[in-house]
Design goal:
The protein is an all-alpha fold. It has a domain of about 30 residues. Helix content is about 60%, strand content about 0%. The chain has 2 helices and no strands. The longest helix has about 40 residues. The radius of gyration is 29 Å and the shape is elongated. The N and C termini lie far apart (about 85 Å). The mean pLDDT is about 85.
Length: about 70
């Protein structure tokens, strides 16, 4: 084996394997989807809790009712 041959990297040594990078990307996407879903769920539950509190206090106009506009 000539001198310097072991020190020079081959093209295969420079590239990272595809598997770990893809697994990291998939994990990141799953975490983002869970975070967005959790935020949406938290927002909806907060709105429902506010309406429930209003009803428990005996009020009558707690939830807005939307009516379609007539053309």
């Amino acid at each position: 084996m000539p001198r310097g041959e072991a020190d020079t990297p081959t093209p295969d040594d420079e590239q990272e394997p595809e598997g770990p990078r893809r697994a990291t990307l998939v994990a990141l996407v799953v975490i983002v989807v869970l975070a967005v879903g959790g935020f949406f769920l938290w927002n909806q539950l907060s709105k429902m809790a506010a309406i429930q509190d209003c009803v428990w206090e005996g009020r009558t106009n707690c939830a807005p009712i939307t009516t379609p506009s007539r053309p």
